[in-house]
Amino acid sequence: AFHIPVDILEEVFLNLPAHLVVSVCRLVCSQWKDVADSESFWRERCRRNGYHLRESSKVPSDWRLFYFMCKKRRNLIKNPRGEDELQGWEIIRNGGDGWRIERPMAPHPYTEVQTNFVTSFSMCSKSQLIDLEEEGYSQAFMDEFQPHIRVSDWYAPRCDCIYNMSVKLLHSNKGVIQEFTPDTLYLPEQDNQTWKQMIHVFKDYGPGVRYVYFEHGGKDLVFWAGWYGIRLTETCIELCPTLDT
């Protein structure tokens, strides 16, 4: 019925939810579609949301895809604190009296963390395999952007104990592209009021990453019946396409 100046129309779209711009606005007419599909619109949307490129030389071929992948950032680990018991985890070893869920002995730095896993007097370990395509990260996105993959795990001893962790980036055939497997940590009892965080960031790993395999666990070194081993919680794996600010 009437023509809206492009700059005004773009400003209106920038103040609407992105999914409505794609699923509704771009279907109205050819002018609206052109604005909703334009590179300048999605570049500006990224700028206003603070989604900055890690390297200015690596410009996305699809800014809309880049925007939605940045917006999708979240923890890909299921049940990271044990709030749903052991749901989502594959138990590799369940030694001694096995895995248990309990309330933290000492407050966690994140006040929302009110549960943790704890191990027993023989080795306990559990794992998750993350299928990136099932989580919405397409092969094309992974190969072009190669977003940083940030891994973190919170741990604390109850008595003298050990802690193990291993993370692997896998090809479609489950072959290992990169891995992070730090040495076993031996933790003394006197640190049992202190939560510590293991962090690793995968960078420049090349094309082909389709899965992330995560495993952690441990045991106590006093061999007491019950649950006196390593305590674990708030495990997190995130894909980070943008520069963290």
From TrEMBL:
Q: Membrane-crossing residues?
A: none
Superkingdom = Eukaryota
Q: Where is the F-box domain?
A: 1-45
The record, for SUPFAM superfamilies, names: F-box domain, Galactose-binding domain-like
Instruction: Name the InterPro entries on file.
Output: F-box-assoc_dom, F-box-like_dom_sf, F-box_dom, F-box_only, Galactose-bd-like_sf
Which PROSITE patterns does the protein's record reference? FBA, FBOX
- Stated name of the protein: FBA domain-containing protein
The chain positions of domain FBA read 66-241
